[in-house]
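Regression test attached.
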Amino acid sequence: MTLQGSLLIGQQAVTGSEAEIYAINPATGEALAPNYRGGNHVEVDKACQLAEAAFDHYRETSLETRARFLETIAEEIEAVGEALTERGVAETGLPQARLEGERGRTCGQLRLFASVVRAGEWLDLRHDPAMPERQPLPRTDLRQRHIALGPVAVFGASNFPLAFSVAGGDTASALAAGCPVVVKGHSAHPGTSELVGRAIQRAVAKCDLPDGVFSLLFGSGNEIGQALVANPHIKAVGFTGSRRGGTALMATAHARPDPIPVYAEMSSINPVFLLPEALKARGDKIAEGFVGSLNMGAGQFCTNPGLVIGIKSAELDAFVTAAGEAVKGSAAQTMLTPGIHDAYQNGVSTLASKSNVKEIARGQTGDSPHGCQPGLFVASASDFLTDEDLQSEVFGATALVIECRDSDEMQRIAEHLEGQLTATLQMDDGDLESARQLLPTLERKAGRILANGWPTGVEVCHAMVHGGPYPATSDSRTTSVGSAAIYRFLRPVCYQNLPAGLLPEALQDNNPFNVSRLVDGKREG
Amino acid sequence: MTLQGSLLIGQQAVTGSEAEIYAINPATGEALAPNYRGGNHVEVDKACQLAEAAFDHYRETSLETRARFLETIAEEIEAVGEALTERGVAETGLPQARLEGERGRTCGQLRLFASVVRAGEWLDLRHDPAMPERQPLPRTDLRQRHIALGPVAVFGASNFPLAFSVAGGDTASALAAGCPVVVKGHSAHPGTSELVGRAIQRAVAKCDLPDGVFSLLFGSGNEIGQALVANPHIKAVGFTGSRRGGTALMATAHARPDPIPVYAEMSSINPVFLLPEALKARGDKIAEGFVGSLNMGAGQFCTNPGLVIGIKSAELDAFVTAAGEAVKGSAAQTMLTPGIHDAYQNGVSTLASKSNVKEIARGQTGDSPHGCQPGLFVASASDFLTDEDLQSEVFGATALVIECRDSDEMQRIAEHLEGQLTATLQMDDGDLESARQLLPTLERKAGRILANGWPTGVEVCHAMVHGGPYPATSDSRTTSVGSAAIYRFLRPVCYQNLPAGLLPEALQDNNPFNVSRLVDGKREG
């Protein structure tokens, strides 16, 4: 299909009336047609009113209907074919194979949530039967299920044009929960967004769902996003992006007459702790794995390992040398947007200009106008503890190695960290005691703790936590990847003494959905 | 024991250095010794530092140790004997039987959470085993558990000196989750608070737990509470009280460098919908039940039925007459504090002075200096829809009846309501269709929906939701009563590829806690 440059409001394609946005191919600097005129409060209101109108119907669709809808979205995305990955490549500078892999991940994620909807665990069904003979007072029948919060605003992220964008994890989990979704598409990949948005539109129509279950808006600047979060019909927000962007949305959500939850996944430098025995046994191999993870996607991952912590030693020196050599040989991959490239250059320059930071290596510069020249730097733990500049995220393939005097200082570094998405331990059997001492601190700092792996590559599964204490996210009680992401968009409702004819189907005596329940606090099924 | 007028910081009893507070017997107006000198930031810091120091140990205590601790608190509270209920009566004006019942509820709640801790559902254990052969990429072993958020600040409520105070639901659920607790005791019942606080102190010592697991602070004004919420060691807040108080704490929590969740249960007028067939069949009986619920505890319940909605008819007139007669005959029960009594008088006067509100009945005035003279008023639906004064909570035994022209107008009233803790339907079989039409709206407005009962009397069980959309609470995704309250104080952590020697015990292969788990998304055990 030909891209139209449209906003998608329910089943309609609408041309905006505000300033245009358009994609730039970061590999060439060329502007990509079509232009997308931005929406304003009129389109925000219309999309949100449609979402509101769709909500009560959509949230009560059968588990099977909703699961089929998610699967149909996946099928429609796949049916777009190469046009989708080609446009994705052009808009992001990412390689074709990456776009293909990301499409697989996105569609797999939609299918995972289809299975989650069918399993029905998210309903958290509870039943405390009546006890009419209880003394001193009888107990009436009490049942609980979870229902959808309401229409959800989702902000597409720049760095995953499919998996964290229009049909990404936030959209999939919100739709799974029974929430209509209004997406603010990321301005860097509007064409990819339109293609995916139209696939969702088709799935809505094929599944006979109300129009308002899905809309897609574009707009330059922050106005449209702020208007979306402020709209009274919106009841929750999913966001992946910068700390500045996330905290601005949090402020708007908090200032509403009825504050709403914001699930913002923001910034993380993903510390990697090199424990001594592991470093001794396989420092070179760790250096290789580290630089591979650092360079993945030009370092433009939320889980990019931006901080490496080791104890000063000949082995750490050898690790730094080996990692530096690998960085020197690393190609400059094209970054997602000119803006992200500028921010990266500024971040690296700031780091390089600091007297307490030593440059170990820079990678290749390459030919791309927006190539990411990798970087590796070293600083002392004492400087890291006193200079908060050193804890700032540099979004891209640059990392800082922190040299500690001893394990106590390593512990202090761990305690000093802000909230993180991940913390990684490189450890051998002989490091077990050191790892045990770090673990309680790491648990309080990060949502996911890894041993002998790398934080990039977030598995979409049931046990995943892609979350963590502030500022990694705005709500450490949640995850934005994996099946538990659905819980962000649900709330419990208790039904007391309702006649069977009024009780929601899920809560009927015969458990028609055949879902695991807590009966008098004991699990059944 | 003799009351000391102390702050309790860990195992210490400390005398504050700020302005004094003291209880007033609201039945007599007499001041009750001792005076409690308030704490300031020094005591806040000390209590929070102790809580922080206790946290990592306390959160990893065995399920059995933590359950026994909760049970020991219950035993120690019971061991205080009549001194506790007598002091409670003197400080609140509530009858002895109510205090005894509330003590039973409080201790039952502690024992319920002991059973919840032992059952371990709250750990939400998940395991996605490694798939080393998977193509194109292998999957590593991923496990998830929930851990405690950190030290929790709890604010005692005025209206339940035991069940929503020092050892109330917030404290019990936070301790169950593994969070140390710092309580800001309510200034209206410091003696009751001290007795309970010392019972908890003794339980901490008997169970060999670190001192900082529990502290109790007092202070006049808002400073100490604000300092507590702002303290960097505090990671969540439980509060039951006014909308003004709750939103002030929310603002402080949101303005922190690391915003933290606030679980504030604030205001609710608990609408009761009188459906036509029920009104025809048993209007008198409904009137009787309604006034009984209205008068319970002088109407000082969060779930007090402050709003009754019916369709204008002879049957509704008869209901209003019957309810008015019952209100006229209602005694004036002593209110909790002079301040609450003043606010009630002002609220009733404002309502009575409005030209669009008709006074139906006032109850007895009685002899108490702070007696609650019940009240019943009527207004039209059209006035309710346009005058937001009519939706304000009057804390006490006063209710407003709304007369609707027809069921459409009743529906509009439902849609117009703010978030509520409860919504009640009085209905007969012939009302089923009307009830079905109201239900989706009520689900979006309230945390608990009742049929043919009254909202006062919140059962402490597994299916209970004592929560609801803003402004009923600050977080509609949660409940502050019932076993699910524990989830407020937990967050998920994922462990990727950890060696068995480093994995938390709960996540070991052999499931040593014998807890239900999600394995590859399927429930086991």
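Expected vs. actual: identical. Chain B is about 40% helix and 20% strand.
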